[in-house]
Amino acid sequence: MAADELISPLQSFEGRLLFAVPKKGRLLQASLNLLEGADIQFKRENRLDIALVKNLPIALVFLPAADIPTFVGEGRVDLGITGYDQVQEHDAGVRALKRARRMSGEWISPEDAARDPHGCETVLDLGFGACKLQVQVPAKGEYSDGRDLIGKNIGTSFVNLAQEYFTRLEMEQEQGASTNGDVNAKPIVSGRKLRTNIMHLSGSVEAACALGVADGIVDLVESGETMKAAGLKPIDTVVESSAILIKSKQPSNPAMVDLIAARIGGVITAQKYVLCQYNIPKKSLHDATKITPGKRAPTVTQLEEEGWVAISAMVERKGIAPVMDELVKVGATDILVLEIRNTRGI
Ligand SMILES: Nc1ncnc2c1ncn2[C@@H]1O[C@H](COP(=O)(O)OP(=O)(O)OP(=O)(O)O)[C@@H](O)[C@H]1O
Ligand SMILES: O=P(O)(O)OC[C@H]1O[C@H](OP(=O)(O)OP(=O)(O)O)[C@H](O)[C@@H]1O
Hints:
The protein is of the alpha/beta class. It folds into three domains: 3-83 and 90-125 and 243-252, D-Maltodextrin-Binding Protein, domain 2 (3-Layer(aba) Sandwich); 131-241, D-Maltodextrin-Binding Protein, domain 2 (3-Layer(aba) Sandwich), CATH 3.40.190.10; 273-339, Alpha-Beta Plaits, CATH 3.30.70.120. The chain has helices at residues 28-37, 68-73, 84-104, 110-115, 159-175, 207-210, 225-229, 254-272, 285-291, 320-329; strands spanning 17-22, 50-52, 58-63, 79-83, 120-125, 131-138, 153-156, 197-200, 216-221, 232-241, 243-248, 273-281, 299-302, 308-316, 333-339. The protein has a six-stranded mixed sheet with strand order 2-3-1-4-11-5. Helix 3 packs across helix 5 (159-175). The radius of gyration is 25 Å and the shape is globular. The protein binds adenosine-5'-triphosphate and 1-O-pyrophosphono-5-O-phosphono-alpha-D-ribofuranose. Adenosine-5'-triphosphate binds next to helix 3.
């Protein structure tokens, strides 16, 4: 066996920026598309959760989305793609741990405190994986408000956020105060015993009510199809989420983090916008530029034909159809909509 075959994947991380990517689930494919768009080239061997990037000093680590905030927050991994909901759940877990430590009077060494950044920074919203973490109850049942579930059984994979949510409601009830649903409005009292029973479920959480395990659940909703199929309805939203790029507070190679962030940001902008090109009589230029102002300003080019100009401007993809309708109304012709493959510096 050649000597280099004896080198473990862990050893070959040396000097590489570690970038965590969801290994499965809802965020996997869109994340892989982003990596491809950012020209991060790798080959993932079957069943291996580590892949060395061929053209950059980066190693990709494929991890469950729920674990990525821990790895990045602990500074073990430099960058990661995960859901904002997962970061919030992780942070709520860290808050709970700190409260418990304070309560038990546990001594925390200065080294521990320094090593414990327990937090990652959001670099970019990635524009996919939009969903809401919602409190759900049987559609035909007696509950219509989060407060109705105080003291009941709640099934969830988001135990820490659910605990914070119900702690807040219980405290409000006890104090007769209102925080208007803002879960961050008041600090959670240390050592307080929660009356609501939060049960951890790892998946298929929607089944818990029908099976009599839970009175309500806290779970993710996108289209609402799963919730509806399970005979549930939402009564409150705990977190609104989408996929985000996060970074450690002390990345091993800050310049490489910035480069990757710029590349990924460029791909996201390219996905969000299309390029709209059209010709318009010069006298209608003012009206047309109001419809397509572009990111900074539209590009206006003189046409050979007297009294006409050509315009080129970036337009948000989701609004392009009405923009084209409006352009036709002000006299635009030859309207073309082109895909943007990549961007930078926008
Ligand atoms: N229906 C959905 N629509 C959009 N995004 C979602 C949806 N469900 C989950 N997500 C996002 O994807 C993240 C990962 O969820 P997903 O269910 O794919 O996880 P997973 O790693 O496959 O774990 P599990 O085995 O628990 O399902 C969530 O934290 C959330 O940010
Ligand atoms: O509102 P919808 O569009 O129906 O999506 C919501 C569902 O998607 C997620 O689960 P997923 O399908 O990823 O599987 P899981 O239940 O195993 O987590 C989430 O936990 C819901 O069950």
